[in-house]
Specification:
alpha/beta
């Protein structure tokens, strides 16, 4: 089995929500192999930045890990703005990027991918060798699930090497992610907050990005307190159709 085939198998074992891509010479073999080996659909874009934005939006809307794949060099360099946006949101997103062949000193598309990725406020990981594929890619998936976006670069001459056979099956990063723990608010702090709300004469609930999944609870609070509703730019549309909705609050209003 080639490394690019093993990459395809690992992506399947990691149970990602969806894969978005723009195909190029440094990622086409693993993408083609992924479709052939799994039958999964890959959502192709016409621009690398659009592919990352699609993956970012998918992950934000579903809460599932998204994968995006681009080629090396100029393909990767088009990701700057969407990478910054995804990283500031801590979106669970893994970008599988090709990289220049290690044996070609004068490869025309080569540039310092790690420095570029880090300047885009995103973590950078890379495939060290064919033998370390399982460990390297599992680490990247783990970080994408627990910290935020990761760009994982794999030189396409290494992708052509034979993947090392392991006696134990691949262990997905999901097995390493701790179950979320319930967090209960401090009772005294909650009582103080409730007292402030009860004393308010004209309460308004301003919902931001972090409250998108709590719409029903916010509407219940509005019913109990007689509050009007508004949102930040990132939560625009959350209360559309509600008679109490004031729309955007803040600089974009």
């Amino acid at each position: 089995m080639k490394v690019f085939e093993a990459i395809a198998d690992i992506v399947e074992l990691e149970e990602v929500g969806a894969v978005f891509a723009v195909m190029g010479d440094a990622n086409m073999k693993w993408l083609s192999s992924y479709t052939a080996r799994t039958g999964r659909l890959v959502y192709y874009a016409r621009h690398e930045g659009a592919a990352v934005s699609m993956a970012d939006g998918y992950a934000r809307a579903t809460g599932k890990l998204a994968v995006c794949s681009v080629t090396c060099g100029p393909g990767l360099s088009l990701l700057a703005t969407p990478l910054v946006a995804a990283s500031r949101n801590r979106t669970p997103l893994l970008v599988l990027a090709g990289d220049a062949p290690r044996g070609d000193k004068y490869y025309e598309q080569a540039f310092d991918q790690q420095r570029f990725v880090e300047s885009s406020e995103t973590m950078a990981e890379h495939l060290r060798s064919a033998a370390s594929l399982d460990e390297d890619l599992r680490d990247a998936f783990f970080l994408a699930r627990t910290v935020g976006p990761i760009v994982f670069s794999a030189a396409f001459d290494v992708q052509e090497e034979e993947a090392e056979a392991h006696s134990d099956p691949y262990m997905p990063s999901l097995a390493l992610v701790a179950e979320p723990q319930e967090i209960r608010p401090d009772a005294e702090a909650l009582a103080r907050a409730a007292a402030i709300v009860r004393a308010a004469e004209r309460p308004i609930i301003v919902a931001g990005r972090g409250a998108i999944t709590a719409k029903a609870e916010l509407l219940e609070v509005a019913d109990l307190t007689g509050s009007l509703l508004a949102t930040s730019m990132m939560a625009k549309g959350l209360f559309d159709g509600d008679a109490r909705n004031l729309g955007l609050s803040g600089g974009f209003a």
